[in-house]
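Cross-check.
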Amino acid sequence: MSALPSEADIFIAELDAAVEAHMNWTRRILRCAVLRTAPGEDVLAPMAHTLCHFGNWFMSSRAEFEALDAQAAQRVEAVHQAMHDAIRSICTRVLAGQPGNHADLETFEQSQSDLLALLARFKTLILTQAVRHDPLTGLPLRYGIENDFALCRKEARRACNLLYVAMIDMDHFKPVNDTHGHLVGDQVLRQLAGVLKQTLRSNEPLYRFGGEEFLWLLQCKSVAEAEQSAQRLLGAIRTTSVPVPGSVPLVLTVTLGLARVREQDDLSSAIMRADLALYEGKKNGRDRYVIADP
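Predicted model, tokenized:
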């Protein structure tokens, strides 16, 4: 069974199918050159690059390509059209009983090679991104935290904000797995991650840190604002319940440990202080937040 998120699995399968359709398209080109058979409108039409299977799929998936690499997505469109323009010229001449143009053939070969290389790069990007995201919750894993932490720190300094590292741990998760099984446990983690994503602001990075633990990077203007954000998060989770077949719904709570990032802190030291605050919250009854000493 694939360990990739389903969206990545689907995109990879569609990409492979589009490349296969492109290879079948080139076989029709060869038949046109050898047997003088008409290759079809997706070769001869002026806008053939929008009519072929790959062109249709690429345009419908353009947003996903641009999210991965906007410049490379533009390059895909350009080389794909150049390939079609060159082969249309070649096939038109061949069907008219004339030899193809050498420059068109070179353009076709180069643009086809460029297209396949670009698509291979996109496939690598998709696979890399997929393994850096948790397939259960859809959240990023630890891989990018160091870089994101550095960017958030720079942005906080520029905006004169405070930066907090917050560790979020679901309360009493082990009894959920022990009592109801791992399928219910997975459902609980998915629902918790969904509430976290809906409650936090879009510019606040959130990661699945491991098990039932999540890491949140919070920027705010004051300690009071950090407290309000933590309290809002606790309230949103308290109102969340997970239906369990044959049992009462599970009501979720979490404990938060927050540490303001000091000038001398690196990510590891900030996480350690947030962890200590989290343990204090667990020791004092859970379903609460604790902010580490500055």
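The mean pLDDT is 88. The two ends are 47 Å apart (CA to CA). Passed to J.P. for a second look.
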